[in-house]
Design a protein that fits this description.
Number of strands: 15
Number of domains: 2
Order of helices and strands: EEHEEHHEEHEHEEEEHEHEEEH
Mean pLDDT: 94
Radius of gyration: 19 Å
Strand content: 25-35%
Oligomer: single chain
Largest sheet: 9 strands, mixed
Bound molecules: 4'-deoxy-4'-aminopyridoxal-5'-phosphate
CATH topology of the largest domain: D-amino Acid Aminotransferase, Chain A, domain 2
Helix content: 25-40%
Structural class: alpha+beta
Length: 304
């Protein structure tokens, strides 16, 4: 099957899809992106993702390249043309191509790229059934992790370290010894007295769309929830740990830096939340209360 990519208004063969060498995404990582899950041919939580995209762009003073509704059409068409039933669609928007200079160019049209790919759901389910390992790494990222920037070098370094250690994810640790989030996921623990803990929104983490859906599902279940930072020691002492993301849904973490968490197997609550999230996803995120931009930190939490 031939793959196609959307590039600046055209659907082009994957092998020929390209942006300019002076694109500011390439030169300066001057752009943002979104990854949206495709479930049975439909986008999951598209309104939350497009809202977050708009916010990320606004923070960088890049104009929306088109309306959210038009972007949605581009994403749906990219999925359709690539015949993706279950998988992911990536949308990337940069400030555009301009003669190399750090300050913003005047009147440059943003670059817009979308690609879609299928995901092996069997492999993901097998990982979730066994649980996966995580390692810790220092969080060496910049001060605006709430923006979904394409500047992903530190995430790539952390993920590579995880891979070399035979682990699935790297949990990033701030200077106070507290976990910020995973390299491409939000980090959660379940304490010994069954409290669900995940770091609160601030500039130190990306407000995950999956994080906010899982929080909502947990609330509906009447679970006890604390949005606060936790230490590595607390994670090692926890009953359970897991990560949430568009690509992993809810993924149990069964060891951290080689030390088992809980009984060393996937936790009950993680399993339950994964099942609830899968059901939610099959409904494509419908039934969700109005989006209140949950990835926006309240002003008092904006600073690290
Ligand atoms: N944190 C980081 C740093 C990420 O890259 C991601 C995935 N893009 C997440 C959290 C999870 O966000 P979401 O649930 O919206 O995929």
């Amino acid at each position: 099957m031939s793959r196609v990519a959307y590039v600046n208004g055209r659907y082009v063969p994957y092998a020929k899809a390209a942006v300019h060498v002076e694109d500011r995404g390439f030169q300066f990582a001057d752009g943002v992106y979104e990854v949206i899950a495709v479930n049975q041919g439909r986008l999951v939580d598209s309104s939350g993702h497009l809202q977050r995209l708009e916010r990320s762009l606004a923070e960088l003073r890049i104009g929306m390249p088109m309306t959210r509704a038009a972007l949605l059409v581009v994403l749906q068409e990219t999925i359709r043309r690539n015949r993706v039933r279950n998988g992911l669609v990536y949308l990337q928007v940069t400030r555009g191509a301009a003669r190399r200079e750090f300050a913003f160019p005047a009147d440059t049209a943003p670059t817009v790229v979308a690609i879609a790919r299928a995901v092996d759901m069997g492999k993901a389910a097998a990982n979730a059934a066994k649980g996966v390992a995580a390692i810790t790494r220092p969080d060496i990222r910049w001060g605006r992790c709430d923006i979904k920037s394409v500047g992903l070098l530190s995430a790539a370094l952390a993920k590579q370290a995880a891979k070399e250690a035979g682990a699935y994810e790297a949990w990033l640790v701030d200077r106070d010894g507290k976990v910020t989030e995973g390299s491409s996921s939000n980090a959660w623990i379940v304490t010994r007295d069954n409290v669900l803990v995940t770091r609160g929104l601030s500039r130190a983490i990306l407000g995950g769309i999956t994080r906010s859906a899982v929080l909502e599902l947990a609330r509906r279940e009447g679970l006890r929830i604390e949005e606060r930072a936790f230490t590595v020691a607390e994670a090692l002492d926890a009953r359970e740990a897991f990560v949430t993301s568009t690509t992993s849904f809810v993924m149990p973490i069964v060891s951290l830096d080689g030390k088992p968490i809980g009984n060393g197997g996937p936790g009950l609550l993680a399993g339950k939340l994964r099942a609830l999230y899968e059901a939610y996803m099959t409904g494509h995120g419908a039934g969700r209360p109005e989006w209140e931009a949950p990835f926006l930190a309240p002003p008092e939490a904006q600073a690290r």
